[in-house]
Structures are given as C-alpha cells and as structure tokens.
Amino acid sequence: MGYELLKEFCISRDIDIRFDEPMSRHTSLKIGGPADMTFFPDESSLSELKRILAAERILSIVIGGGTNILVRDNGIEGAVIFTSKMNNIALNAERATLNIEAGCSLQKVINMCVENGFGGMEGLAGIPGSIGGAIAGNAGSFGFEIKDVIKSVNLLMPDVGIKELSVSDMNFQYRSAKIPPDSIILSAVLSLKKDEPVEVRKRIDEFIKEKKSKQPVSKASAGCVFKNPKDIAAGRLIDEAGCKGMRAGDIEVSAMHANFFINNGKGTADDFLKLMDTVSSKVKEKFGIILEPEIRILGRSGYIE
Q1: Domain 3-82 adopts which CATH fold?
Q2: What is the tens place of the pLDDT at every residue in 258-286?
C-alpha cells in the first residue's frame, strides 16, 4: 500500500494526515524539524493504521502532548502518531475510578478529580502532557507518582493486539515504566480516593503555588532535562556547578530552576544538545556524577529514551 492508499484509508476513517509537518508546532519547547508524515487517529483506527505502516515498512513513533521531548532539527523519519484524539474519560463515581484514553491531557484529569472529589493526584497538578506520556515516564512531583493511582493499563502490542497489564506488570521505576517494544499505551484505569472537592482543590492550589515559585512554568521548556541521581537533585548539582544562566544560542539554563532549559524564542535542538553536553561535563568535573537525560531525544540521528 502506497501513500495514495494510505491517504484513502485516512479519509475513510476521518484521520488527519499531514506531510512534512514541523514538529516545533507540537512540542512544548517549540523546537523540532519536520516529520515525514503525521497522523491523528482515534483509538478505533490505531491498530489498522499501525498495521498498514508496518506492512509498508514505514517507521513510526507515538507522541502525546509533546512535553519532555526534544526533536532534532532535521526532523523525524517516517510517521509520527499523535494521541490527541484519544481523549475519552469514563467515570465511576461510586468506586472513584477513571478509565482514561492515553491522549487525555493530564490536567483535564486533574480537573475532573477536583469536580468529583477524587484524591490521589494532587501533586501532579501543573505537569503538562498526556496521560499516556505520564504513564510511560512515571510522572511525579511533590512525592506523588502516577504509578500510585494506576490500577491497570491497556496496551496495543504487535502480534498480540490489546492486552491489559496490572500495575505490577508495568514495573514502574523512577521516571520509567516497562513497556514492551513497539507497544502503545491505549488507556488506563486510575483508582482514586473519595474526598471533598474543596479539600482536593485546596491541596492542588498549594502545589501549584509552590511550583510557580520554583519552576519557570510560563517559559518554553521540556520540563526537567536530567533525572535526579540517587539522594540528590540534578538541579542542585547543575546550580552548584555554576551553570545557572549558561547559554548556547537561544537556549538558557533557567535562573529559577537549573534543571529546566528555556527556549528564549529562536533556540534549536543543536543548541539544546550542546548545552546538555556542557552542563553534563561541568557536573561530572565537579562532582564525578554522570547525569542521565530525563527527556526523550527524537530525530533522524536516533533517539534516547
């Protein structure tokens, strides 16, 4: 099946398909060269789309909210599948559970928790991106992690189809989850605690206030660049290595939080990578610690997860 038949399939399923789409339009960093092709399917079309792409030997990757990623300036080979149309939520008020499709905004879920008096996710307030991305990276803040409220996750797995995994099957660790190769998170069931909406809102407001006082939330960034080494914050190491305010082109180490790199408007992926290398070298030289990237780096030179 060639591009024409692929286009016909997308038309028949009402899937938005775009060619040479700048990834800078779809990342929180506002950086990234063009993807060869991009798709915006709903969950019912995803399996067949993946089958067609695989049959045509077209490489594909899945992206949720475009946060916590850096796309290289030369763009992405093959297909990018966005989950933004996979955004349905089913609520069970009696059991305090949410069945959420992977493309749902994490903040949409937080808002639903407030409306219904569901506790357990307050510390994740203010984290951008999708539920799928939050699960893949075991997103967390203020002592909360997404794994703490996960009951089960549905994956689309090659040669298997849809499979439900329990929270133990996912083997969640710090900023990671065990997801089989070429599998896609479709949805998850969250198990929460009943509470009063006003109390949930109060805790969220406190966390948001603290986050705004310590992180450059209004700036273009990918969130934390490096994972925290054991028993110490990466931001503290970067700060004490004298890297705050350091720049490469239009990318800058935030003066507010050293583990955030800010795009001041015209930054490139090359600038970002150069600054990562410089900061890593400074930290290693001063502390003997090698920082590990928390962001995913995607693009024609390969990517790191």
Answers
A1: 3.30.43
A2: 999 999 999 999 999 999 999 999 999 99
